[in-house]
Amino acid sequence: MVSLKAMLRPLITIFSAAFVLLGNEFIPPALRSLFSIVVNYFFTPQFTLIIEENVGLSTNQIYAAATTYLRTKISYSSKLKRIKVSKTNRQEELSIDIVVGEVVMDHFENIELKWKLNEEKEEKKKAKVNKPRVYFTLAFDKRYEKDVLETYLPYVITRFEEIQKEEKEKMRTIKLYSRDYSRGGPGGDWASINLEHPATFEKLAMDPKQKRSLIADLDRFVKRKELYKKVGKVWKRGYLLYGPPGTGKSSLIAAIANYLNFNIYDLNLSGGRYSDADLRRTLLSTSNRSILVIEDIDCGAELEDREKNNNSDTIKFTLSGLLNIIDGLWSSCGDERIIVFTTNHKDKLDPALLRPGRMDVHIPMLYCTMDGFKLLASNYLNIEGDHQLYRQIEGLLENVKVTPAEIAEELLKSDDLDDSLRGLVVFLEEKKKT
Ligand SMILES: Nc1ncnc2c1ncn2[C@@H]1O[C@H](COP(=O)(O)OP(=O)(O)OP(=O)(O)O)[C@@H](O)[C@H]1O
């Protein structure tokens, strides 16, 4: 919508030209001063903010917010000559975006704001990827400078957060990111796929008390933005999952991601092709509302050994060094972050990792109990209540260390419920002998 002020501007320009032509001596002083007030009102100097895409290595939050916010300002009736349009097979609606060179007008209270996306092709001699610099300009009357900085931009960021939440709710697509070594060297960016893991807390066989307490802990964590801010703590939470292979550590991470609708960043340290600087860059490019997973950290000892090996110029950190990097980065730019470590051998861990405040919650993932088995039987065989073989299975589970993964495997071996359970009994009896 064009404001009254914008409509009257050409008229004032014509009057100004007429005044200049007539000369000051023909115009009464009172009319002159009235006219100068009017001119000032209509032609206050414009002020322009430059909003770059990145701040050093980090993404500029205002830029990201503007990109999303302006989508809501592009209406089909606007005067834009070009817009970007896209749709993935998971989206129900088209998504539209502003393109370089186009101007989007916005109105906030009585301020008229002019957004423009600009591109500056810059020779980046050192960089491997020659990506043009892209930035927004935001122009408005100079006298609104304070309002724009203190009220309008925070409003754009708040709207951005709301829109992001709404969009995530709509799409419910959770991404699983792994580091992509093919892009930009070993510290490279993340490559993602959609996480289609069906794990949920309901389907997970684990100690019911532990499960309830974890869910309550997650609920508390996501609600506590203000509290973390008030006490001056970084809004992050660390979980250590430990237990033998096949007890559901990966499934639990997927269940947490599905429950919170957080993306997962899987940082595989065992590849070992990164330096301190690479890691910093990689970690900086993870987003808020995400889970950083570092699996099998008992290989930390190996990392420490490699640190001592001066022949290697790529490995320059220890696990506790890595945690310091994470703490440092997240304290400056991270919000609503979860970090999950998994290990098969808690006893082998560097004590620095276990000290209070580092991993907030330690979660044991244990061999299968009768309760866990009943849940698996209900998931896999739809058995609700009791079965004649349950007493025998219970007796065996008390004496045999078997993982939920092994039980799940047995339960899948036949379509017939009784056959499956009989097969499981044989399997447990065999295991008991060994
Ligand atoms: N506690 C559990 N509840 C339900 N299913 C489970 C559980 N543990 C394992 N499973 C089943 O076994 C499969 C393998 O488990 P998962 O990969 O989560 O174990 P893990 O502890 O992460 O193993 P690893 O340490 O080898 O990575 C899962 O896909 C799931 O089908």
Automatic annotation (TrEMBL):
CDD domains xrefs: RecA-like_BCS1 (cd19510)
Name of the protein in question: AAA+ ATPase domain-containing protein
Originating species: Lithocarpus litseifolius
Keyword list, A-Z: ATP-binding, Hydrolase, Magnesium, Nucleotide-binding
Entry keyword tRNA processing: no
Span of domain AAA+ ATPase: 235-369
Family according to the record: Belongs to the AAA ATPase family. BCS1 subfamily.
GO biological process: response to stress
Cofactor: Mg(2+)
Classification via PANTHER family: BCS1 AAA-TYPE ATPASE
InterPro entries: AAA+_ATPase, AAA_N_dom, At3g28540-like_C, ATPase_AAA_core, ATPase_AAA_CS, Mitochondrial_chaperone_BCS1, P-loop_NTPase
Pfam families: AAA, AAA_assoc, AAA_lid_At3g28540
Swiss-Prot/TrEMBL catalytic activity: ATP + H2O = ADP + phosphate + H(+)
GO molecular function annotations of the record: ATP binding; ATP hydrolysis activity
